[in-house]
Structure formats: structure tokens, C-alpha cells
Amino acid sequence: MPMRVIYALEPMPESFSRSIFLAGPTPREDDVPSWRPEALRLLEEAGYDGVVFVPEYPTVPFRVTDKQYPDQCHWEAEATEMSDCILFWLPRELATMPGFTTNHEHGEWFRSGKIVFGAPSDAPKIRYLRLKGNELFVPQAETLSEAVQKAIAMVRDGALRSGGERYVPLHVWWTDSFGRWYQFMKDAGNRLDKARVEWTFRVGKSKERVFFWILWADVFITKENRHKTNEVVIGRPDIVSTVLFHPSYNVIESEVVLVTEFRAPVANREGLVSEVSGGSSNQAKDQLTLAGDEVFEETGLKISSSRFEFFDCRQLVATAMSHHAHLYGVRLTDEEISILKKNEKDGTFHGVEADTERTRIKVIKFGQILEENLVDWSTIGMIFQVIVSRFI
User: Fold this and answer.
1) What is the mean predicted confidence (pLDDT) over 370-385?
2) Within 10 Å of residue 213's Cβ, how many Cβ atoms?
3) For 245-256, how does the pLDDT look when each residue is reduced to its tens digit (9 = 90+)?
4) C-beta pairs of 339-342 under 8 Å, 24+ apart in sequence
5) Exposure b/e, 67-76, CB count within 10 A at least 16 = b
6) C-alpha span between 301 and 319 (Å, rounded)
7) CB under 8 Å to 342, separation ≥6 — which residues?
8) Residues 6 or more apart from 205 whose CB is under 8 A from it?
9) Measuring CA to CA, which residue among 84, 112, 80, 134 is closest to residue 210?
10) ∠ CA(29), CA(35), CA(41), 5° rounding?
């Protein structure tokens, strides 16, 4: 499929697999050539087969009248939202092509995870832009050819999208967490008509992986024949949660192992989160293996996978977050519960220091958990699900 160029004020494409926006200063004088034709030549020469958004006219000198200006700004905003990569090329010449608007646009997008920044080595007044880009591992270049190659690399793993899907950039589209949420939405018969990525939190040595994302979504609810437009979806990887318990003669007297640690969102007087063992992983692990690893990291107990009983997979905070918890339960032996009680008394720390995780354990009766408001509602539900099943 040949490259498709969408020029200023032209209709947006109905579908595409990958898209690049050519952002940067536009000449305002007839004798100053635009850099964008050369960028298009380089893209075509490299075999790029996606959409390119060009905020200029194809054949005549680019002039935006006062009447056209709002439409031009709206078109550029729409095109950048639809872009998988925004290629900023800044051949700044203070007299003829200062690029002041480009500075603002770069600031608007440089945290998005979908920009490439390029400028000639001798371009004036770009030191700050390069410095900020380095802090967030933005791909950078000193030649237009190199910038084009880095933009192509960013959209290498394309995906055919149409309608509202076009507003979901590839680095979010390919996350497992988005894919699961979107599949559930479609399975319910609903339709994504528009979207906007409000924020991403990226991890890895070069911030190459999206861990959290927030998406404003315009969803058409088919069964109700209406749109819902006033909410966002917060996505992250699914978690595993394991209830370690030592049963007694009734539910209330049964003992549960809680993991206590500081987490930034905590909002209680203790200043600590108490929960069951669990977490997520950036590595390719099956949920059972991950459950066993988390129990060992957070409690010090090495438990055979054959003892983990799977209960269910449910959403945790359905009004805001799309991820699910995969729930397991393990019935502890008398010896294991004694070891954990000793560790609790000794104040033994667990967790993975490299992840700034420092946990302590607390062995407590289920009745006390209910009385002392120690855990959130989701955790109470998971504990109840596991323990009560032993008495049914």
C-alpha cells in the first residue's frame, strides 16, 4: 500500500495502520523553502506505507487567513491526536523560520511518548528542548533523514484502526490492558467513537513500556442508544492476589496474612496499605507463577504451585479502572502460620528493594479485619470469597 499524504484542511482518513504528523515551523515567505517535501521524499524512499499528516497545502505557498485560522488549528489538533508519531523537525532560523509555535506544540506533546525530535546541530535555541527530551528518552536526531528513520521505527508495529480507534496511538493500542478493556467493550455491543490519551506512565530503562494509561472515551452505548462522554478509563496490567489463610472453627476466627507497606495513594490514619499478597509483572509470566513469586517476595514463604487454588477473576474499581484481579487462595499449615507469626513479631521486612517495595506481614483474624477497618472493600471481598468457601 502506498504512503497516503493528508494535507491541511483535508478530511481525515477513515482508517489507517500507522500515522505520522510532520510538526515544525512553516515558512511564511515565498523565498523560504519548506522542509516537509524532503521529509515526504525520505518517507516514501524508505517504503513507509502509512498516513502522513502535513499541515501545509500541497502546491501553493502556505498562507492561512484570519478566517481560516480557527479551522487550521482545529485540523492540526485533530491530526496530532490521530498520530502514532509526531515528528518534530526544527530547522530554526530566527529571521525567517523562528518556530515559536513549534516550541509550544513540543511542550504540549513531549511527555506523550509518541514524539521524535530533530534539529540541525547548529540550530539556535534548542538546548532546552534537547535537555528535556533526554530526560524522558525522546528519540532525537540531528538530520532530517535520521529523524524520519526514527519516526518509522516508532510506528513499525502498525495496527489497522478505524472510527474512534484512530485516536488510540500504537504505544497504548498494543498494551494488553487496553486490548482487554476494548475487547470487553466490543463484546458488550458498544462502540468507541472518539478518544484522547490524557496521560501515560511509562517504565523501563528507556521508558519504553506503557504501564498506566488514562483515556478519555466517547462511547456509544448500543443498548441505550446514547453516548457517554464524561468519563475516563484508567488502565494498567492485571494483578494477581493470593489470600493466605489458616482456618479455624468459624469464619470470624480464621486467620489471614496481610501484607503492609507504604503506597503513595494511601489515605488512612496509619499511612500504610494493608492488603493480601499480590501484584503485577512486566515480564511474561503466567498468573499462577506470578502469584507464587509475589507470595515469596512479600512473605518469605515458598509454596508449591499445586497448593494455589484459583477462585475467580474480577474487576476491582469498575467506575474508574479497567484492570482485573486474578484471585488465588492457599490454606497454610500450622508450621507455616507459626513462622509468619514469628516474622511479624521480629518485624522482618520483605519485598523487592529494587522496586522500592518494603513489606511487613500481619497475621490477624478475619473478625478483627472487619472491626478495625484495616483493608479496602475489594480486599474484604477477596478474603471473604476464599475463606467462606471453606465453610460451605
Assistant:
1) 93
2) 26
3) 999 989 999 999
4) 339/301, 340/244, 340/257, 340/299, 340/301
5) eeeeeeeebb
6) 35
7) none
8) none
9) 112
10) 140
